[in-house]
Write a structure and sequence with these properties.
It is a single chain. The chain folds into six domains: 50 residues, no CATH class; 62 residues, no CATH class; 111 residues, no CATH class; 63 residues, no CATH class; 59 residues; 63 residues, no CATH class. Helices cover 55% and strands 1% of the residues. It contains 19 helices and two strands. A two-stranded antiparallel sheet has the order 1-2. Helix 4 runs parallel beside helix 6, helix 14 runs parallel beside helix 16 and helix 17 runs parallel beside helix 19.
Length: 456
């Protein structure tokens, strides 16, 4: 069987032409060595089976060890264990789906204690929703500590790419939905009234009792929320940061507008850095938030009405800030000094309201099309930009590893499972490149580079 197939992955019920139940026999040898059934194997027998590719561990154990190793690498590389469901490793292992399966088994109580401990030691996140909520809560707390409030524009994105403004608005929306539902339930005097007021599909109707004049009476006189939504504990934690559930705090615009008006009377303009504080108000930050809100949502929206725009125009508001190409390049340089790279999300916006991520993306596109001016290219390179994309860098890494392998072994006969001494899965990379070549998914430059290396 090994000579014909090149492996010993024999189905349990496989029977040879001579009538030998080979599948069952191989399974028994594995169990004998593992000590789960009676019997013994000599060292000589074990070596003979090893010589023809015997796999001693069962597939589930091997799959678990593979998943665990990939998860450990992910945590080391990303400094967290929050893996998206669709995430796959470089060699195609579906790590996101594998972790989801582990969580499902954990919830059902069918995951062995040893496996649980190994995953937890590696940084496993069992409750993804709670973990992500806590991650964003931490970002909100850092914002509050830095700026003194939670008046975050909806378009605000943290330096590491978290859409904090969107998240906070979602928390407010979830809170208002829950609070208003509860109020409608309590105030309803008849079942029909409650049904009309709360026809959302997200709440279910409790039973009606004549004795309860306040509305509906099942254990607390309130709409019973289903599993989704903001929890009481989460509400308390956000309130400890000073969140205002109904939008910005009362009188916030008028208070800051008054300060801006006084500044305008004193200096004749509203030109100030984003960190500028005037008479206790963070005026620079507030003005930038207004510019950003108008740019994204147009002149008329819930937070920035036409009346507010007119009032601001009267005191010299400049909606489009003057920010030169050189200024943005300098901001990119400062980002590089702070973070060590310019791999920035396209959604990243600076405190000054500059979409630095999108701007860098445009520069890279212009460079690839050959339309970026030479002096700009030179300045961006001094700022630390890398023109190659993540996929291009990964391809280059594979080529260098292949060159190293050929230099050492003078051959390109590499098994799919081959791993370099440094852990790089070269065999898997070569396999994928050959498949891409067959499917016509390589660029002309990539195909040429592989041809030079001798990959057919």
């Amino acid at each position: 069987f090994y000579k014909r197939e090149g492996h010993l992955e024999v189905k349990k019920r496989y029977i040879t032409e001579s009538g030998l139940n080979l599948g069952s026999w191989i399974l028994t040898q594995r169990r004998v060595r593992a000590g789960t059934v009676a019997g013994s194997l000599s060292e000589g027998q074990i070596k003979r089976l090893d010589a023809i590719g015997m796999r001693w561990k069962d597939k589930r154990s091997e799959q678990f060890e593979k998943g665990l190793e990939e998860f450990r690498r992910f945590v080391v590389r990303n400094d967290h264990g929050d893996v998206s469901l669709q995430y796959e490793t470089v060699d195609g292992f579906p790590l996101g789906k594998w972790l989801s399966t582990m969580r499902s088994k954990y919830k059902k109580g069918s995951l062995e204690r040893e496996a649980v401990e190994k995953l937890e030691d590696a940084g496993m996140v069992w409750d993804v929703q709670q973990y992500r909520w806590e991650t964003y809560y931490k970002a909100a707390k850092e914002y509050r500590n830095r700026f003194g409030d939670l008046e975050i524009p909806g378009s605000y994105v943290t330096e590491d790419g978290k859409k904090l403004g969107v998240w906070l608005n979602n928390q407010k929306s979830s809170y208002r939905k829950k609070y208003r539902a509860d109020t409608a339930w309590r105030n309803a005097k008849e079942p029909e009234a409650a049904t009309t007021q709360m026809n959302t599909g997200e709440y279910r109707q409790n039973r009606w009792t004549e004795e309860d004049k306040g509305g509906f009476a099942e254990e607390g006189r309130h709409l019973e929320k289903r599993e989704s939504g903001i929890t009481k504990e989460q509400i308390q934690k956000l309130e400890s940061l000073g969140i205002c559930w109904e939008g910005k705090s009362a009188g916030s615009f008028e208070r800051k507008y008054k300060a801006a008006s006084e500044y305008y009377k004193e200096y004749g303009n509203l030109e100030m850095p984003s960190t500028f504080v005037y008479k206790g108000e963070k005026l620079g930050k507030w003005l930038n938030e207004l510019r950003l809100a108008r740019k994204k949502e147009g002149q008329n929206n819930q937070n920035l009405t036409k009346e507010k725009v007119q009032k601001l125009n009267q005191i010299g508001m400049v909606w489009e800030k003057k920010d030169s190409w050189e200024y943005r390049c300098e901001m990119a340089k400062e980002y590089f000094i702070k973070h060590g790279n310019l791999e920035i999300s396209q959604q990243y916006v600076t405190e000054d309201g500059i979409w630095l991520g999108k701007w860098l993306y445009i520069q890279r596109m212009q460079y690839k099309k050959g339309v970026l001016e030479g002096w700009k290219k030179e300045k961006l390179e001094k700022a630390g930009i890398c023109w190659k994309s993540a996929s291009e860098l990964a391809f280059e890494k594979g080529c260098k590893a292949l060159e190293e392998y050929f230099s050492k072994y003078k051959s390109l006969e590499i098994s799919k499972g081959y791993v370099m001494p440094d852990g790089y899965r070269l065999g898997s990379w070569v396999y994928r490149q050959r498949k891409k070549k067959r499917d016509g998914k390589l660029t002309g430059e990539q195909a040429e580079r592989l041809a030079v290396l001798g990959v057919e």
